[in-house]
Amino acid sequence: MLEVLFWTSSIAYFLVGVNYFLRVFCIALVDWIGYDTETVRLEKTTTVTFTLQFFNTAFLLLLINTNWSEQFFSFGLIAGDNEDFQANFFSTVGSSIIYTMIFNSVYPFLEAMGYWSMRLGYRLLDGGLCNKYNTNKTSI
Asked: Which of 7, 9, 75, 113 is most deeply buried (CB count within 10 A of its CB)?
């Protein structure tokens, strides 16, 4: 039971990282395909990214928590304690999905703050923040 709980919690946070790389890959793939208008490109990017991340998150959490003891295949996963959709199943899987959703709701802010702090750090290395036209660089 403790081992399954560990893997469930670990996979919830691992999925956030995987979903980030899937999002970047989907955006690059849709850009590579190319569309006539920006609206169609954004529509396709949103649809593909949402679909891929949804199935990635939902199915991996379900596979980790499923009891595979009576199946002839197991995908090499640890057999979970949940034989059917019971209250324990929903509390285990539901909490992992909620953790992933909470982190995904906060992550865009953390990412923006990270890029802002990198930009601020580069400005400090270049000569300070007092005058935005002051720079140590001689060319662009």
From this structure: 7
